[in-house]
Amino acid sequence: MEILETYLPKDIYSLLVMAVVVVAGIWLVLFLVRKLIGIALLAAIVIGGLMAWHNPVLLRNAQDTAVRYYEQWRYGATVHEEQRRW
Question: How much is the pTM?
């Protein structure tokens, strides 16, 4: 504990300023990490869209999957209820 005491200031105002700086630094890091994750997800969606756009087989498969999910959401149960994989 003696090692930690040498780095902590003795007066209350310095402690408050240091606490505010630490909280602001943590907020800034979390804000930047959240933005970087958002940019990475957006880049992944764009790259996936370009891959599907330039590959007709992949595009057809993506369209079939999207239509199947939409129909399941819109009409409730799937059309081929008896063909479940489980």
Answer: 0.52
